Amino acid sequence: MRASGEGFTHSTLFVIPHLPMALRAMGPFLSRLRERSMTLLPADQLCMQLPDKVTGLFLVGVGIAAAYGGSLQPPVPGQQIGPEVFPMVVGIGLAICGALIALGIGHRFEEEAEADLAAHSDQPAPPERRSKAAIGLKVLLPPALLLFYVVAVDRLGFVPTGAAMVLATALALGARPKLAIPLALVTPVGVHLVFYKLLRVPLPDGLLPMPW
Amino acid sequence: MDTFYEALRLVAQPDVLIAILLASIYGLVVGSLPGLSATMATALLVPITFYLSPIAAIATIIAASAMAIFSGDIPGCLLRIPGTPASAAYTDEAYAMTRKGQPELALGICLWFSAIGGIMGTVSLIVLAPPLAEMALQFSTYEYFWLALLGLMCSTLVARSSPIKAIASMLIGLLIACIGMENPAGTPRFTFGLTDLLGGIEPIPALVGVFALSEVMRAMATAEPPRLPSRRFGSILKGMWALTLRYPRPQVRGNIVGIIIGVLPGAGADMAAWVSYAMSKRLSKEPEKFGSGHPEGLIEAGASNNASLASGWVPSLLFGIPGDTITAIAIGVLFMKGLNPGPTLFTDKASSMYALYIIFIIANILMIPLGIAMIRIASFVLRAPRAAIMPVIVLLCAVGSFATGNNLFLVVTLAGFGVIGYVMERNGFPVAALVLGIIMGTMVEQNFVTSLIKSDGSIWPFFSRPVAAVLAALTFAALLWPVFVWLSRLRWRRAA
């Protein structure tokens, strides 16, 4: 699921610069379509927001795959109902929902809820002028750091790995080194003390064993 | 009476009392930070509850969630940024009061009526649970199947998004629950040859990913909320008693609506606050004053969200069907601690249940002094820059997920669900429905398949038993409700 989600963003990012060229060739019909897609995806919007058509069709695919995968499950001998029924029911349901979403049904509920929420809260709009790709990479930083943790923690040990993660997150959020460095030095040690010493979670020592 | 004394003894243990106090402070701080919700506060606590006694574990969850729901009101009042989604409904009203120069009044109302709402919700839990438990003893797999499905449908109804996207989210959750060997045949299903997936997706890293990690990801893309100007507050509770006497009706109504919404499986504090605020405005004698800093709506909605928090435990304890996302997490903890939810909990483990009630009452009373202290230091806590808080949360997510099974694959799960949660939220797919789907998937499938095997593949018994028929009707009503809303709006527009 994750990989395909990223795939969509990358392919949209890849396609957008090539759109004008294709449009000139394909006439006014497509330019109308482009106007529509641009209203769906205003430039200042944050990344990873996809048109309903894309998410809907993706869900149709997932639903069909799940139903098919479910139908391949080996039956329980001597019984009509086994592990195949539930994924098939859910998969078909998901495919139907995906089709409805792709057709834009129920979109109005969403607009109303958004308008309601916008009227009630005052979240400041991001004043960013960075490119969408830059924000996209920053958004993916926390999960990337977790994968780094998985790869590195046994070799480096908990405290160094944690310090690197804290430092990276703090700097990405715009912290000055004066804040980020002390934070990166103190936080992993504190977390290690609580989880290793008090809660006895086996965090790996690696290069830097703690004295407790 | 012996059970009651036994319960008192259970609660009076020093570890339980310390757990309540620390969890309360934790809940107040986390709830007050914009963007960190009560659900996230609870999800991050779960790994710690592993290492506590059963009663202390439940106590931390109850105390932290109650405090977080209240303290979400603080940045709402002072900055017009709701700390938790449950505060969003009346943030404007509270902020209008602050602008009029009455921040003490706004915060006092939130605190005082939250505490009363919480206590009323607890009373409803005490009163409603035993008779419902008796009824639940008669339930078979058919009823459980419908009940679980009803809970899932309710969670999609209240999602404040496109109902179809909400249902899709729930179905994705059910599909994720299909992964692993825990299925009717006990064969590996959807594991793609990975041994780590044989046990299925662990709900806790998934929850932490969806609610906490995706919040950090969102912080990466949004601007930092404005700093709170430091100010001194006058007396917080001044005039609360007069307001209690002046607005008895909104208060009672808020409590009742909150209790009802909480008892419904799947619908929680956010919904209670929205419904109560809207109801208060419609039924008020002075609806024109709403939005300009009028206490009435604040009283009703503030009481409502805390009442729903306690009554949300009714379906969780009785049927193992969560009333909202917080109790969804709590159910996991209950199972882990050997307090398996179900009607027999009230007969076999009666003293634990009484202890739970007592903890609820203590937490709601403790909310008043601790809440006042929190309001006094709010300008200090809210000045902590996001760049200092989010890195700590990332690290806690990693360690907490790892600790649930001492397995690094759980951290991969966490990262994956962080991305899934972020992408879904960005595209209007409500994540609460996804989480409830993941948690309840196994239960829905088990009851569904067992029922089908019992009936030899016929679906007739799903509708022929009286209670099952009522639950089925409610489920279909929940499914068709958006269609009804749409049709009635269409007719209304045509008439206009």
UniProtKB/TrEMBL annotation, chain B:
Transmembrane residue ranges: 16-36, 48-70, 105-129, 141-159, 166-184, 256-277, 313-335, 356-382, 388-417, 429-448, 468-487
Keywords: Membrane, Transmembrane, Transmembrane helix
Pfam families the record matches: TctA (PF01970)
Record bears the keyword Transmembrane: yes
Domain of life: Bacteria
InterPro entries xref list: DUF112_TM
Domain DUF112, residue spans: 17-436
Stated name of the protein: Tripartite tricarboxylate transporter permease
Organism: Vineibacter terrae
